[in-house]
Amino acid sequence: MAYRNRAKIAPKEQNAWNVPLQPKPDPVGGRARKVSTGGSSSKTVTAPATPESKIPLPTVSSSMLKKSQDKFNQVQRQHAEKAKKYAAEYVSSEEEAEEELDEAVGQGEANELATRNILGDVLRNYNGIDADVGKTQDYLQNLLESRNAVCLICIETVKRVDRIWSCGACYTFFHLMCIQRWANDSMSMKRIHHEQQEGYYNNRGEYIPKPALNVQWDCPKCRREYGPDEIPRHYDCFCGKEREPAAHPWLIPHSCGELCEKKLAPACGHTCRLLCHPGPCPPCPQTVSVSCRCGSSPVKSIRCAQKSWTCVKKCKRTLSCGMHECGTQCHDPGKCPPCQNRSKQPCLCEAQTKEVNCHESRWQCGTVCNQPLPCGLHQCERVCHAGPCGDCPLGLPRSCPCGKSETRAASCAERIGTCGDTCDKLLACAQHRCPERCHQGACGNCLELVPKVCRCGSTKKPIVCHREAVCEGRCKRMRTCGKHQCNRKCCDGQCQLCDRVCGKTLPCGKHKCSSMCHQGPCYPCNQKTTVKCRCGGTVVEVACGRERKANAPKCKLPCRVASKCHHPNTHLCHTGECPPCTQPCGERNDTTNCDHLCRAKCHDAVRVVTRDKNFKPAGPWEVPKEIVEVKALPHPPCSEKVPVMCLGGHETADWPCSNSKPSSCGRPCDRLLKCGVHRCPLPCHKVTHRASTTQDSRCEACTAGCSLARPEGCVHPCTLPCHKAPCNPCLVSMKAQCYCGLTQVFYKCHEFYPSDMERMGPEELAQLTVRRESFLSCGQKCIKNFPCGHRCFSICHPGRCPNPELCTKKVKIGCKCGHRKAEVSCRVARNNSTLDCDQQCEAIRAQKQEEQERKEREARAQQELENQRELEEFERKFNKRKYRERKRHQVREEETGRHWAVYVVPVVAVLLGVVVYVWLMQ
User: Where do the record's region annotations for Disordered lie (predicted)?
Assistant: First the structure.
């Protein structure tokens, strides 16, 4: 029994023409089946609509048929429930998606929606910012959408059901069996090469054993080395928690769906909070509370991946020069940059001066010192240096060139000659000594004849010591490739790598290996091949050998297939059948017999699925035959917008041409009634004349009260029924506070707000304002104060108090020093707020100044005494190396002169201060 694959049939959309289609049979009463009978021929039947219906079979009894029918209905219901449940969670595999891509319309949008759903499930438990997961999300997006994940070893597609292994450095996928074979072959080749190596003798006759075996295998892409114990043995998910993870349609392929929880790098103590995913983990999104790099700002919360943050404060630390501050923005302690301030500094020998950075104050000019040495015969040959040149080097104890006889010359001008003995210095070979007499300069090469073994160890003969023994034999060992001989003259056992090109055909079958000759399988082909679209206008590059299984590229050029309707093809190049035309029809609509063009979607070639009405099924397993036809459907009703006026003539709206009849717009009629004030409140209704704005025979009569506007400021309504203007004056009594707020005043509303106020001129408005002020004034004295703080002397009034400059209240004023005081009027004090100082004020000011100067002189004298004491203490500690007589004499003279000045100067200053003070007081 084979189910019909309905996924390959385009869904039937509701069209604008209401084409009658044959209804589907009830999925419970009978399911469409197709049963193969014999060879390739098949018979199609439809199940009866009800379980009680019987099928006339001459060879089966009615009771048996009823039992079989009940059993079939029960099984059919179970299958329908399972099919509905599976359809809600089903996601087609890559192979099915590739087959349906050419047949289904809109499959690209479905794939994009599925990709977004998968990425949302993976990132749902991530609480960081979007920028932190950008790298991982891009990796997942490319992985899910490209469908070109290829194993670089076998050049085959890595499917969602394959057992894989992912490299820990480059995160590339490989089939588990392929990477195991690759690792075992690599280590086997290295073991074979190690067994072929042998020990050898070097040119000194020492035996050099072959190196120790170090067997490792590397990733085919990034060449990261792995140990033998790191060969993958099991199929694990990306996070390593689950072994042999099952393929789930709503999870990332090869993942377990649990939290990753890998330790993040760099190590911060947190783990990855994403679901099990391929590729690297994003930076740590956790928040930590840390201070700035310099530690001067309060702590704040930042992302753990940032580790540190920089404040806006400037560093105040003193630089190594000892004069300038750092001044750079917040940085780590102890990492201040070198001082960049420039100043003129002399070189070490002080012969030259130039402007340099503070941190380069110790610099050399590069000239030879040439200062005369203490011997007076030679000059200093050292380059610019600090300090004294030192003693003459030729005046120190010297020896002959061979070093056997040592003598001390009487003068640095004398020359030390050779001693005449054998040189006997150790030569460069480190085995023999120089046989010549004591000589100047370096010794020559060693000429001793010693027996030496050649590099390959096959020949031994005497040869000069400083030369290397080389024979004429050719090395017969195999190189690392295991195919070619070394053929090197007198090889020392370290055969060079093979320098020939491999030339084997790569797995792609098109190119040959261009690497040097090697053992084992060749690396995957790194060449690219092209894959073209249907029209050949777009070409993309894929890995060599993948062009047969790679999907056709998305082409942006127009499709070149002939159109089935009267419109040209406007869609892009594609594979499979062309999608339905989505352009407007554009032909005259003959359904409504109007002059408008059809604006509906093109219906010249519409796919219509029908069923045979005369089909009689032989059983519930047969399905009525579906007939798929491409037909030209009639034009739908015209939907062109035409202007239609409503029943009351209020507005003109655009209605479809097929339904262009006047109707009510729903707005109020709003025609002026006979009262001349109100309008008709009925909704839009039919009238005799649509252009008229006065009351019609079908309008409602006025039953409202007066609604005329009252004078501005009056809030009392008119009590008369609806009438024409004007209304009677308002007689309501009003109560308000006076300007000073002490008394309540009363007045009539029409007196304060007259009805003819809008028609008054400027003079009448001014009189109205005066009258209103008189109504609101209580006639008593104002209780407000002037800006100077004194009481206003006007009658209750609005606004600010008038004439504040005429205030005559008495106030006190004084001079700047506060000695003189006087009482004047407020008006005079406002113009001149202070008095002039007299001679007595000046005398008091001079006396205070003299007192301050005297205190400053006493402080300076005390500071000089303290400095003198510190200087004497310093000289007592650091002048011990001088001769006793000279030191005592100098100290005695300094103490005599300084003590007289220390005691006499303060006494004279105090006496002068007393005299000045007495004179000022008199």
Answer: 1-61
Q: Which residues sit opposite 464 in a β-bridge?
A: 449
Which pLDDT belongs to residue 881? 52
Say which amino acid occupies 671. R
Q: Could you tell me how far CA 271 lies from the centroid of its own chain?
A: 21
Segment holding 694, helix H or strand E: none
3-state secondary structure of 398: strand
Which stretches within 61-174 are classed as H helix? 62-89, 94-101, 107-122, 134-146
Q: How far is it, in rounded angstroms, from Cα 260 to Cα 276?
A: 5
**Helical (H) or strand (E) element with 855:** helix 839-878
**CA dist., res. 7 & res. 104, Å (int):** 8
- In the chain, how long is the greatest CA-to-CA distance? 158
Predicted local distance difference test score (pLDDT) of residue 177? 93
Residue 354, phi-psi category: left (phi > 0), alpha (psi -120 to 50), beta (remainder): beta
Give a three-class secondary structure readout of 238-259. Answer: CCCCCECCCCCCCCCCCCCCCE
Answer whether 0.85 is exceeded by the pTM.
no
Q: How far apart are CA 422 and CA 435, in angstroms?
A: 6
Q: What angle do CA 357, 359, 361 make, to 5 degrees?
A: 75
Amino acid at 899: H
Element (H, E) at 578: none
Cα–Cα nearest to 581, from 562, 557, 555: 562
The helix/strand/coil state of 58 is coil
DSSP codes joined into one string, 419-469? -SSB---B-TTSS-B--SBS-SS-------EEEEE-TTSS-EEEEETTSPP
Token duo for residue 474? 């050719």
Distance (Å, rounded) from C-alpha 720 to C-alpha 705? 7
The tokens for 701 are 């009569």
Tell me the C-alpha distance between 84 and 9, whole Å: 18
Query: What are the E-state strand segments in 458-547?
Result: 460-464, 528-532, 539-543
CA–CA distance, 121 with 119 (Å, rounded to integer): 5
pLDDT digits 0-9 by tens, 376-425: 778 888 888 888 888 787 777 777 778 777 766 556 777 777 787 888 88
Q: Are 203 and 451 in contact (CB under 8 A)?
A: no
The residue assigned the tokens 């300084």 is 898
Cα–Cα distance between 825 and 841 in angstroms, integer? 25
**Encoded amino acid at 427, one letter:** L
Any alpha helices (H) in 680-838, and if so which ranges?
749-752, 762-776, 826-831
CA angle in degrees (0–180, nearest 5) for 89-92-98:
160
CB environment 181-211: b (16+ within 10 A), e (fewer): ebbeebbebbeebeeebeebbeeeeeeeeee
* Rg value, the chain, Cα: 56
Q: Tell me the β-bridge partners of 644.
A: 653
Which of 8, 168, 19, 23 is closest to 97 using CA atoms? 8
- Residue ranges, the chain, pLDDT below 50: 1-60, 87-111, 125, 127-129, 131-132, 144-145, 882-898
Retrieve residue 748's tokens.
């009539």
What is the structure's pLDDT at 528?
Answer: 82
Q: Which of 580, 579, 573 minimizes the C-alpha distance to 556?
A: 573
Q: Please answer whether residues 330 and 312 qualify as being in contact, where contact means their C-beta atoms are separated by less than 8 angstroms.
A: yes
CB 286 within 8 A of CB 304: yes
How are beta strands 164-166 and 173-175 bridged, if at all? antiparallel
Contact of 509 with 156, CB cutoff 8 Å = no
DSSP state of 823: E
Numbers of helices and strands, H then E, in the chain: 10, 29
State how far the Cα of 762 lies from the Cα of 781, in Å rounded to an integer.
Answer: 30
First to last CA, the chain: 138
Q: Are 329 and 335 within 8 A, CB to CB?
A: no
What's the pLDDT score for residue 181? 92
